[in-house]
Amino acid sequence: MSTDIRNHEDRPVIVGGGIAGLLIALHLAPAPVLLLSRAPLGTEASSAWAQGGLAAAMGDDDDPSLHLADTLAAGDGLCDDAMARRILHAAPGAIEALAAFGVRFDRTPQGRLRLGLEAAHSRRRIIHADGDGSGREIMRALVAAVRSTPSITVVEGVEARRLAVADHAIQGVWASGPAGRMFFGAHRVVLATGGIGGLFFETTNPIGNCGQGLALAAHAGATLADLEFIQFHPTALDGSGSPMALISEAVRGEGAILVDETGRRFLAGIQSAELAPRDVVARAVWNHLASGHRVFLDARERLGPAFARHFPTIAAACGKLGIDPGRDLIPIRPAQHYHMGGVAVDGSGRSSVSGLWACGEVASTGLHGANRLASNSLTEAVVCSRWVAEDLAGTFARPIRPVPVDDVPSPDAAPVRPLVSPALGVVRHEMSLTAAARTLLPLAEGKNSMADPAAVALMIAIAALRRRESRGAHHRSDCPHHAAAVRRSDITLRAALRAARGLAPAPALESLSS
What we know:
The chain has helices spanning 19-28, 64-74, 81-100, 134-147, 212-219, 249-253, 278-290, 307-310, 312-319, 376-393, 417-423, 430-444, 451-466, 493-501, 509-512, and strands at residues 13-15, 33-37, 54-55, 115-116, 126-127, 152-156, 159-166, 169-177, 180-185, 189-191, 224-225, 230-237, 257-260, 295-298, 330-339, 342-344, 356-358, 363-364, 490-491. It is an alpha/beta fold.
């Protein structure tokens, strides 16, 4: 692996070292590519924390059309049907591609893939690697492959701060690292930066992931889509700190149930109960907690002593709190988990800005709609990484102009979390959204470390205000029903700032919580 970054003007630059970024670089080999990672590979990517695995129709009783039907149902009317069909039909091949890179998937004694079940899936189609350590195992294999590929230059400890743009076309990436400020000239840049969990107090994501990719794209003038749709995982381990340990949906797939402190199974009256779509379960848990109850996951009967063998990572997280999942109830609460919205891209991952692609959680392909079907996220990243790489390979170098931009400090989302967490949580309301947007506006227009996280949060708040209905993961208590017209939403940073300036005065957040 080369470390010479002086002559890279015709190389694509990939920002982000998760599964999407690593695979794009690998698919481009032997063509040279530059990969920028804020942290050492495999250490701060959400990909490495994924427990659920990848969804793909590979069982004898399954078919991509059934997988598509489940995805569309979970997406609550907002999936891009054609894109979803294309991705899900390519999913089985993506599993085989990962195996070729050295990923050790869980298999039966007969050598067949072991298939698990998760909520809202009609078939067993979740492919795991290393039990509940799927993301960690995939990252292990891909990091090893990247480090042994001479055409991939990895620059670690460097944070992208702004994209250089001239005439609505990418010219390169301004970044900062131990050596100070630097410019990577490139007319082809791929964002693979992950999600927005760091904007929330309670999240299962690395807290450093606060929407940097969205900020980069937004300041470059790109269109973003469906930002209001944020998935909250219903079963994060309560008391496990921040970020919160995740209790995978696969635990409920194996028969665990949700109960309150009285032992009542309060989801029994909901269709599919514990295996209902995530937004349904998350709201039910949130409402039960808001009513003064505690909520627990009960795996004692269906898994019992076998729990640690099936879910060693989860068992270890519980053990740190003195909980034995085979004998004890597991305290849980919802936590921010995944962002369905992102940079609006086409079938090749191209954004609205020439020379800018996006892949993985930072992108909005239309697969997830209003609510992601469990384990479709890694599948999307793996499938789309190949399409992005193929599209990049078909482009050619052109002259680069090192467009100057103002220096930007490293983002700090801590001051923004008290605004985002209550206003953009599981249940929303116009008054709290308006108050949050008005408070975020001057922060987003500032020049300090909170400006970029505030800008991302502001765009999400404005998108949530515009969607005057409840659909999928976006639930408004003041607009609890579906709107008659089903539409996806687009937004730019300029439009969000203009909309926020035009908002009528709203009560302060403190008064809304009193």
